[in-house]
Amino acid sequence: MSRERLRTDFQFAVLVLFCTVALAGVTPFVIYRYVVGDVVLGVIDTAIVAALAGTLLYVWRGGDAAPASLFIVVTTTIGCLVVARMVGMSGALWSYPAIAAGFLLIRRTRALLAASLLILLLALDGGAFPSELARLMYFSSASVTCLLAFVFARHTALQRAQLEALASRDPLTGAANRRAMARELHIAAETARRHRAPVGLLVMDLDHFKRVNDALGHEAGDSVLVDFARLVQSHCRAGDRLFRYGGEEFVLLVPGSDANDLRPLADSLRRAVSAALRSPCGPITVSVGGAVLRADEDNQQWLARADAAMYEAKHQGRDRVVVDG
Questions:
Q1: What's the whole-number average pLDDT of the chain?
Q2: What distance in Å separates the CA atoms of residue 20 and residue 14, rounded to the nearest whole number?
Q3: Which Gene Ontology CC terms are recorded (predicted)?
Q4: Measured distance between the N- and C-terminal CA atoms of the chain, rounded to whole angstroms
Q5: Which CATH superfamily is domain 178-324 in?
Q6: Is 312 labeled as catalytic in the residue annotation?
Q7: Taking the mean position of all CA atoms in its chain, how far away is CA 247?
Q8: So what's the pLDDT on residue 141?
Q9: How far is CA 56 from the centre of its chain?
Q10: Can you give the residue ranges of every domain in the chain?
Q11: What pLDDT, on a 0 to 100 scale, did the predictor assign at position 24?
């Protein structure tokens, strides 16, 4: 589970990497402090190691990486201030990895605040530096590091957002794809159970779509799919989510809707498609199946019931709506 999470959760992966590397870097100094009899610094370094190890264990066992990341940034910031005050310039050097890691672990605004406070407090205190020149050099170099880390984090976040959008959207219709659907069905189901609110699902399949492709070619079929997706989205509420499930089959997630809400919505969509969509082969119709999430079923069972209802609509003659209440 955690190994799979390393590949799919960027924040978790960065947090695990930082904690692991920091443990490897700080632990030898803990041993050194006790060997030379510097008990106070040994205790401080031990506390930092304990925070790193505890956080690593927490997230590896499935804990939320967001609050754990914030905890680590706060801990390392305070640790840098304390160690620099006690050992001087060599302690202030730990602020550089702490600054860089902060921009990868937490929101940029928070990371900028933490880094700015760390740099300013170290520079204003002055006790960590042997001379005014050393203090000015630290302030300048740390500020440049902070600025570069901010720019890098912003650029990385924009790239990740673009990649995630590309990876979760159907390039033809603009609807979300199956990858996004799996994630959002899980979130919707958990939210519905937590708030004891209904959530509905509609599976829609264009009738005799193969005839359009066979008679007019895939370009005409693609045009029908694009028009269908636009039509459905124009009839959706702000919180509804449309997914392309595959081929001419689409799924509509309808939060806050029970069977009594799904039926009129599904029938409204069916009538809108029949009235508005046309091809040289004739009118385009759609068969719709719906299902409301039950307390004792998982997402796959929920989707399977909606899919079965859609096939029942096909069996009843197509251009029909069947809702499994």
A1: 92
A2: 10
A3: plasma membrane
A4: 35
A5: Reverse transcriptase/Diguanylate cyclase domain (3.30.70.270)
A6: no
A7: 26
A8: 96
A9: 20
A10: 2-167, 178-324
A11: 96
pLDDT band at 134 (very low <50, low <70, confident <90, very high): very high
Is-contact 286 269, C-beta < 8 A?
yes
Token pair recorded at residue 254: 């309808």
The catalytically annotated residue of 4, 132, 164, 248 is: 248
- The rounded distance, in Å, linking the Cα atoms of 204 and 281 is 20
Confidence of residue 281 (pLDDT cuts 50, 70, 90): confident
Q: Which residues contact 313 (CB under 8 A, 6 or more apart)?
A: 287, 288, 289, 320, 321, 322
User: What is the per-residue pLDDT for 1?
Assistant: 56
Question: What is the rounded distance in angstroms from the CA atom of residue 18 to the CA atom of residue 24?
Answer: 10
